[in-house]
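Table S2 (continued). Query chain:
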Amino acid sequence: MSNVPSDKPFTLAGRTFQSRLLVGTGKYRDMEETRLAIEASGAEIVTVAVRRTNIGQNPGEPNLLDVLPPDRYTILPNTAGCFDAVEAVRTCRLARELLDGHNLVKLEVLADQKTLFPNVIETLKAAEVLVKDGFDVMVYTSDDPIIARQLAEAGCIAIMPLAGLIGTGLGICNPYNLQIILEESKVPVLVDAGVGTASDATIAMEMGCEAVLMNSAIAHARQPVMMAEAMKHAIVAGRLAYLAGRMPKKLYASASSPLDGLIK
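Corresponding output:
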């Protein structure tokens, strides 16, 4: 492996991570399945919907941090379930209080319940407030390259365009827009939402994404723990393929063996 190009570290908010797979913590059968799946994934960053999951705001109820301790995992609180900037900002500030000053957050502001498509106008508003308030903002957004650029200019530390609608498992629906975002972005780009199986994650990494975030693809699999392990390997394979550089595509066949010196 000595001739493999060296990889740059995956860094967020000044911290370096070995795993390029980020996983959600919702939709599992119980806390034990959550723990086992995330352990199998090899993920170091786990995202938590503050409005839906107890991380200390509901004393006496099961606490996710009991099975996913912050001394082992980087907790990434998110604003899932927020539909305007005010709600999203309030949720991030609550998360910072619950996690003792933790500033790394995933911002998502949704447009409606049916599509869960991002409301990019409210997302931009919230991002500007949160950045000024000292948060390190990773932001879920559409696959619009212009919006992605504006969010980076607003100070977001990572841009997270959807591959497909949340929970659909459709894979990367618009690879061309994603490629433009990847080419233009000066901050890390992570695919977020739409991944359905391991090959979707590999394709995202082969395109040059820094990492992939997923939840439903693992939690809704028939065997979530097994799928989590598959995703771990898919991310590694995709990153190595990206670094190695794929062969050019050709319209016609090209012999695998040299044609010179054939025995006649």
